[in-house]
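Can't attach files on this board, so I'm pasting raw text. These are the components:
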Amino acid sequence: MTDRPQVRPKAEGWQQQKDASGKPLLQFTEVKKSKPPVHLADLSVAERAEWAKELGLPGFRAKQISTHYFTHYTSDPEQMTDLPQAGRAELVQKALPKLLTEVRRLTTDNGDTIKFLWKLHDGALVESVLMRYPGRITLCVSSQAGCGMNCPFCATGQAGLTRNMSAAEIVDQIVQANKAIANGELGGKRKENSEGPERVSNIVFMGMGEPLANYNKLMTAIRTMLEPQPDGLGMSARNITVSTVGLVPAIKKLSEEKLPVTFALSLHAPDDELRDELIPVNSRWKVDEALDAARSYFDATGRRVSIEYALIKDMNDHPWRAELLAKKLNERGKGWVHVNPIPLNPTPGSIWTASTKQATNEFIYRLEAAGIPTTLRDTRGKEIDGACGQLAAATD
Ligand code: SAH
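---
Top answer:
Structure tokens for the assembled complex are below.
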């Protein structure tokens, strides 16, 4: 076999921000600190009852309003006829302030994928992507406006971090998607013989942002997703995937929550030399540390971990890298992990491209031959720039 070249990460058409020492800048602090209004979805069930009490209302008012929001997906006081007419509009405005304003939506030709562009109260923009698959409906949600992790192959990272999203801003993406589904706006074929109302069944934190850099809001949002209706969305933890660049202390914290949430590590390179350039946070936590943390996650939760690997032509798709990856995973045991390669999605200004079919197949073959379960992920939403790494939330 001929030796393949080694392309190094280099961006064209945009300048990667650097810190004082010349390393790619990592932003953990928000640029903009404008807090969105507090919403019922920011509060636990106990805090909601407290909230009602403070307003001099009976505790069950909070439950009534929650029911409208979490089961009927409405924030419209007109529809809440079980609340006293006097002061209803003001009360609902206080409990369920509008958090997301739809700016634009793009739909694929066959209608089974919708990308929403949302404006937050302070003008910050975020996106979510709704996808119908046979037997499930997945929403890819954002956890931050922008992202501070500065990965050069991801469109979101190019603009840096604006701010963390609140728990309710995260949850409201799901409520708005459920509303669109209930209104029949998501196309595609429904599962045969299925009846009753449909809603989002799976969440992936693979939209804009680094979820583990917004840890507390992420956990509050997840708890509200898990809370049975009418107090929450009654979703299943197994159907929620948290994806991270590898913030090791936060991964440990997440394992201690003992929730069977699905965990995904965006690895993209098994060697520190390349990963230092592809995933700038690798300067803090190396490949081995991130893999150890992923393995501990499996030990704590029993949930099989996913390794995300965007295949980039001649950069990280060499057969020796597949073998090194398999070796590092096998060293940490069997049956605890699977690999999800995904052909790189194009982003503005990047000179690199997805691996060839042949290189992709070879990469998968080598992993599988080493006993690592591997599934090629689809590039759903690419035609509307809604696929992984393409969310830039621009209005034009
Ligand atoms: N910050 C988190 C979640 C957002 S990105 C994380 O990095 O995991 C969700 C997934 O899309 C990650 O696995 C990310 O590495 C991947 N991704 C980013 N840019 C991509 C691109 N251009 N093509 C394919 N996948 C990409």
